[in-house]
């Protein structure tokens, strides 16, 4: 490979006096005392870097003139003649030139192989799941009557009413919980001290349940007895509730729920009696409340089924749970319709 030659054209540099300054030419510094000139397209070989450099504008030193202090007397201005540079052919070293060519080619190749950035795409919107609020669980309070020293009625076969109401409470509580009701019981065992009816009403009113079920048992009559308060509903809701008539405003809802429970019991082939009475603590409750009393189940071909019979209690509890589930569904549907 033949090394290319660089021709230095003839440049005539006129002189011109200017202020003293420091300039750099090649690899050394010189002081241009009285003038300098500029040359264009000039190629210089720099020994310290072992390479050629093209200088579009280079300062060429002219005859030096020592710097003189301004306070000194100026000396006569010397005269300068134009400098003529004859054309000269310069041949750079081959190894350095070949290395420079290879470096340039490798740089071009790397640029060609550099992958182009992928075209940016608009980000996809995140997947959204519609929010469905968790339905509020309807709270039911069950009050198994009596307990502790208060044994309630003494039933046949040495049965105590407090034991029958507690057993029926456990069955009904399990079924309601399975139907996604929240259930609270005033007692889940036989306490050492008895709760008064006022205390039971205070517990219920404090928890604000949707429905209160007061459980009783008797040896007279047959089937299931349902009682609501005998208080007269007020024409206008009172601003202050009296303790003895707190249930009056809830009587219409109590009768509606009692009717639905009665229908469900009839569908389960269980006899039902609906009535109104002032059974403690119904009159003191501020929520819909029903007293449910178990009586022996009459049978024309055999002796009556006692209130302690597990299958009888389970059948009655399933009908009551089904009725309350239906009432909750209808209440929610009516609320949605009123909201729309």
Quick summary of this structure?
The chain contains 5 helices and 18 strands. It has 340 residues and is α/β, with parallel strands linked by helices.
Give structural notes:
The protein is α/β, with parallel strands linked by helices. It has helices spanning 94-113, 161-178, 197-207, 251-267, 310-339; strands at residues 6-8, 11-13, 21-25, 28-32, 36-39, 42-46, 51-55, 58-61, 83-85, 88-90, 139-144, 154-155, 159-160, 182-185, 211-217, 224-228, 272-276, 289-294. The strands form 7 sheets. It has a 6-stranded mixed sheet with strand order 14-11-15-18-16-17, sandwiched between helices. It has a two-stranded antiparallel sheet with strand order 1-10. Helix 4 (251-267) links the parallel strand 16 and strand 17. Helix 2 packs across helix 5. The longest helix has 30 residues, at 310-339. The model is unreliable at 2-43, 55-71 and 83-90 (pLDDT under 50).
């Amino acid at each position: 490979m033949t090394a290319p030659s660089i021709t230095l054209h003839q440049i005539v540099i006129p002189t011109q006096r200017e202020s003293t300054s420091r300039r750099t030419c090649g690899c050394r510094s010189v002081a241009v005392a009285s003038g300098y000139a500029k040359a264009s397209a000039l190629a210089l070989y720099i020994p310290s870097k072992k390479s050629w450099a093209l200088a579009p504008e280079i300062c060429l030193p002219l005859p030096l003139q020592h710097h003189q202090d301004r306070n000194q007397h100026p000396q006569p201005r010397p005269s300068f003649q134009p400098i003529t540079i004859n054309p000269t052919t310069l041949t750079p070293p081959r190894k350095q030139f070949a290395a420079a060519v290879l470096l340039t080619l490798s740089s071009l190749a790397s640029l060609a192989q550099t992958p182009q950035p992928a075209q940016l795409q608009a980000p996809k919107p995140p997947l959204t799941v519609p929010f469905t609020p968790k339905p509020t669980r309807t709270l039911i309070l069950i009050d198994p009557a009596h307990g502790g020293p208060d044994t309630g009625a003494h039933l046949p076969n040495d049965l105590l009413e407090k034991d029958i109401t507690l057993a029926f409470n456990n069955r009904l509580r399990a079924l309601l919980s399975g139907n996604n009701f929240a259930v609270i019981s005033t007692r889940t065992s036989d306490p050492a001290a008895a709760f008064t009816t006022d205390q039971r009403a205070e517990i219920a009113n404090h928890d604000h349940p949707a429905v209160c079920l007061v459980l009783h048992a008797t040896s007279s009559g047959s089937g299931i007895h349902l009682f609501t308060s005998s208080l007269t509903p007020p024409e206008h809701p009172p601003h202050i509730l009296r303790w003895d008539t707190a249930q009056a405003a809830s009587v219409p809802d109590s009768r509606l729920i009692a009717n639905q429970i009665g229908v469900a019991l009839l569908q389960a082939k269980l006899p039902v009696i609906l009535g109104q009475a002032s059974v403690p603590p119904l009159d003191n409750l501020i929520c819909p409340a029903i007293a449910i009393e178990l009586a022996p189940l009459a049978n024309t071909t055999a002796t009556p089924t006692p209130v302690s019979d597990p299958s009888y209690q389970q059948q009655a509890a399933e009908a009551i749970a089904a009725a309350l589930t239906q009432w909750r569904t209808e209440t929610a549907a009516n609320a949605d319709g009123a909201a729309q």
